[in-house]
Amino acid sequence: MRLLSPATQSQVCVNIHFHTPLHEDEQRSYISVCTEQDIKQVTKWEQQSCVFLEDGVETKLQCIQAQFTMLDTSMQKLSESSELQSTTLKNQMEENEMWASLVEDRYTSVEVNLFYSYICETIHYVHSQVLEKLPDLKGALPTLSSILRKKGKNQSIRIAWESVLERLGLHEGNVEALCAFFILHSYDACYYPVKQRQNYSTDISSVITKVVKNQLFRHSLLSAVRLVEDGKAWGGFQD
Prior knowledge:
By secondary structure, the protein is mainly α. It folds into two domains: 1-93; 105-229, no CATH class. 77% of the residues lie in helices and 0% in strands. The protein is built from nine helices and no strands. The radius of gyration is 43 Å and the shape is elongated. Residues 6-20 and 235-239 have low confidence and may be disordered.
């Protein structure tokens, strides 16, 4: 197939512009030139379209992935917040039930004195263990209640407090339950030394399991008895 020379192609373009008829051979050559150019142009457009399409799809996928990541993060934060609120509500309900139990349940004077005695020794021991970790703060922490008040604002006190509880197998709810009983009965309870306690009961754990209805207070009291009976909480209270 004969191709047109550049000069002829220019003349063809001029003839087309002025609507000048072409000879048959020139028409076939022009169609061939146009066809080759069109094919190249179409191929170029297809390649560009593919690139644009791939870029567009990748961009959309990245946007979708980013949206899923944000959604997952939001869901995780919401879940953590819900768990925290649930835990806080559960603890609050347990504390309310414990306080109601302490006020409503009736113990004999001997039972009150026995419980009070074990609680006194446990509170004293926990307080002394925290002070051992914070010798420079002994003057600022004269009581266990001072530790409870200040641990939220002082990181050193909080760390020492949590370390002591973990080592003794207690949690903060146990200490709060013991302190609640101490506050309620400190005006009418009597402290029994070790020998006197043994005269009243040889199996205090069975007594607690039988008469204490509230689960939190029962578990806290049994933990206090365990510390005392193991000899850990006798310091300062022995005869």
